[in-house]
Structures are given as C-alpha cells and as structure tokens.
Request: fold
Amino acid sequence: MTVKLVIGIVRPDKANDVLEALYRAEVRGFSLSRVQGHGGELERVETYRGTRVQMGLADKVRFEIAVSDEFVQPTIDALCDGAQTGEVGDGKIFVVPLERAVRIRTGETDHGAVTPVGKS
Amino acid sequence: MTAIIAQAGVVDTGDTAWMLAATALVLLMTPALGLFYAGLVREKNTLNTFMMSVGAIAIATVTWALVGYSLAFDGTGKIVGGLHLALLNNVDFAPRAGTTIPQLVFFAFQATFCIITTALVSGAVVERMRFGPFLLFSALWSVLVYSVLAHWSFGGGWLAAQGTLDFAGGVPVEMGSGFSALAAALVVGARKDHGRQALLPHNAVYVLLGAGLLWFGWFGFNGGSGFSTGNPSVLAFTNTLLTPACTLAVWFVLDVVRGSHVTAIGAATAIIVGCVGITPAAGFISPAWAMVLGAVAALPSYGVIVWRTRTRVDETLDVLAAHGVAGFTGILFIGIFASQSWNGVADGALYGDASQFVEQAVAAVATPIYAFVVTYVLLKAIALVCPLRGSDHDEAIGMDIVHHGEEAYASGEGAILIKPDGDIEELLRVPERV
Reply:
C-alpha cells in the first residue's frame, strides 16, 4: 500500500473550516504553515503615505497531510468542503507520491507511520 | 468649598495651567483606547479598529464645536441646552461661569470627553461595521446622545438640578457609552464567526499598553473634572490611583478562582473597570471608600463579562461590562458613601442623607434607558440609508484591506511599486526646443 502527500493551499480565513472538515473526516495528522502565494486572483492596490503598491502575493495557509491511499479522497473532499467560497483565490490541492514515511517515535514506516495511533 | 479654590469669575493661572495639561492628557486617552481595542481584535482588523477611535477624534471634535458643546453647556434647560454657544460663539478667554478657567479651555477639555465617549461605543461593533456608516453614526451619536447626557449631568440639566452627583462622567461617558454599545451590538448583529470560532485578541501587549496609557490619561480626566487645582481635583486625582489598583487586585483573585491563572488581558480590563468605577465618584468619596469601590466594582463587571460570553450577543469588546456596568456601580456608590467632610457638597446615605441615594438611582435608571433607546433608533435609521455592515466575504478578508487598503503588518514581500502616471522622470524632463 502506498502513501501520498496531500498539499492543500487555502485562504487563511478558511483554515478553521478546513480543520473542522478534516476532523470530521477522521484525518488526524497534518502540518500547517502560513505561506504567501500568487494564483489567478485580482491583485489589490494598497497605499502607504502616497506610495501606491500592487500586492502581488496573497496570504495563504498550507496544509501538508500524509495519508495512505484510501484516505486520499476523503482528505481532498474535506479540503474542498472547508475551503471553498466560489471566489477566485480559494486555493489548490496537490497530491504527490511519497517515497517513504517514518514515525520517529517507533520507527514504523509508510502505512503504519501515517495511521493514527489506535487505528490500523 | 475650601479656601484653596480661587475666586470664581476671575481666571486663575494655576488652574488654567493644570486644565491645559489635563486636556492633553484626556485627548491621549483616545489613541490609547484605539491601541487597547486594536490589540483585542484579530490581526486583519487592527487598523480599522484603531481608526474608529481616530475617526471619533475627527468627527466628534467638529460636531462638538458646531453644536454639541452648546447643547450640553448653554443654559439650564431641563433636557438640552441652547444654541448661544454654537459654532464657538461667545466661547473666549472670559472664565466659564462657576470656574476660574477661560471658557475656551473648558470647551476643549469637554471636547476630549465627547471624543473618547464616541470612540468607546466602537468597541461594540468592531470587526464588521463599515467605516463610513460608523463615521455617520459618530456624528449623530455625539450630538443626540452624548451632548444631551452631558447636559443632564454637567450642564445644569434635570439630573444636576435634582441633585445627582457625577464628578467626571458616570452618566454621559460611562453609562452613556456602555448601554449605547449594547444597543449598537444588537442592531449591527454578531460577527459571522461569532460563536463558531475562537476569535482571540491578536496582541495582548497592545492591550496592556493601551490600558496603561488610558489610566495615565484618566488622571487628567478625573483630576481635571474639578476645573481647578483645588481639593476636589486633588482628591479625584489620588482616588484615580487607588481605585483601579484595588480593582486589579480583586480581579487577580477572581481570575485565579475561575481559571487558576492571573491573566494579562483580565488585568488590562480591570484597570479600565477601576478607572470607570471611580470616574463619577472621584471627587466625592474619601480615599478609603475609593479603595473599597475599586474592590466592589470588580464584581458586577466581571460577572457581566462571564455572562456575556455565554450569550449570542456579540458586544465584542465588552463596553457594557467595563463602562456601562462599572459606571452604574460608581454612580450608586456615591449615593451611599459620599461624605461632605471630603467633598464639601453632599453626604451619602451612610453619612446621613439617604435622599442622595435616590438621586443617584434616578440617574442610574434614566441614563441607560435614554442611551439604549436613542442609539437603537439611530442605528436603525442609518441602516435605512446605507448598510451598516459589508458582505461575509469582506468580513473574511478583514476590515483593514477592505476599508482602508492597508495592512497593519505589511511585510512588503510581493509588493510592486506603482509609479505615478507618466513617471516622475518624464514629468521633470525639460522639453527639447524644436
């Protein structure tokens, strides 16, 4: 059984909704970081003491979720559920194959490493 | 009053000097409030929250000069004053009746009260109310609510006439803002995420610094409300130190009992509650009773904060608990503990005059009703003209970007400079002769 890394880049104000959706989908292990990026969204103009600047980067939150195969679709669904507003700028989801995953505490690898304790 | 007070009707240089400084101290309270409020909201609403206080400085100063001051301080009409002082007519270097300071200073000092009170109400509607409608609301509220209440208790209106004691604004400032805030929160409605997500203060250091600066400014607020350097001012000044310190200490205990930690934001709140509690009573009660007031005032305000978070009412920054309820407590406290040997004016129930308590209770009932009803109707009326809040989408992005086109913590990463039209080099170049 293989392991995939699901990367979801979402709006910061939707991060809580995504967390809720992941929790409901029983996806329990992930990392989250604040990133800046540029997608197709309209650029906004800000003014600071007469200096006008075009803000080319928007704040986003990036979820990284390593899951076993059968959890890939529920994870994607949860990300879409939580993060969708219908406006440009909702974000992207990337799924990439993982060569290996290791749980540091036990040395378990791959499927065992990404399955929450107590499940199998 | 005692012999230290200079003869009324003549300008006294010492009194004037103190009032000039006190006015500046009170003005500082509004940016301090902006900082306090800004720390309590989410990062994306920092500037908008601060700007509501800055906006109040602009709006309330103008309305105060145009008509507010006159409605509050011209004549002794029961409900409102006259218009003889409108547009600063007749406001000059001559002493304000009953004081030893030029009316021009008296006007400016009172203006700073109108400003901060208007700014206080913003705490109920931050993070969702649109900036334009808030400014419109500020302009109307500062006249219809603040000026009227100021007339009632400071300007010779019916509360002052029937004997209500209010040293520095328990009626117009504290209860006026607190109960208006409740009405505003109800009309504007809760933030879209209220009750669904944890909406946390984004910078507790701003909150503490803002509270500290407010306390500093409050020495001018209460200490200046005697309009002199006489005994009432000295008493009010020192009570402004004693009461909030006692509120802080009691708040620590309440925090520990409820949550096992002494919290920083709780401490900042306690400073405000203590300052508010002593505001109406500052020049009327002994220092010892001022300390008791500090301890007592903590309880109802703490209770209302705990209660409010269990309701669906999104009175976001607890203006009702910190100002309305603490002002209410302070106004009633005078009725029991005022002592003529300290204030030279009147005794409370404990010192033999039970009627004082009744006079205080009348103010404590009438003020909340007036503030709540007028604010409620005013906001409903404004809502007919323009929407009070933006879309959920705007609220998600945050008020700073939507209403001000700025961010509080812009990093500059990814920001591309837009050159002015035609480029500056282009504009400066001398055309070549043909």
The longest helix of chain A spans residues 72-83. Chain A has one domain: 3-114. The domain at 3-114 of chain A is CATH 3.30.70.120 (Alpha-Beta Plaits).
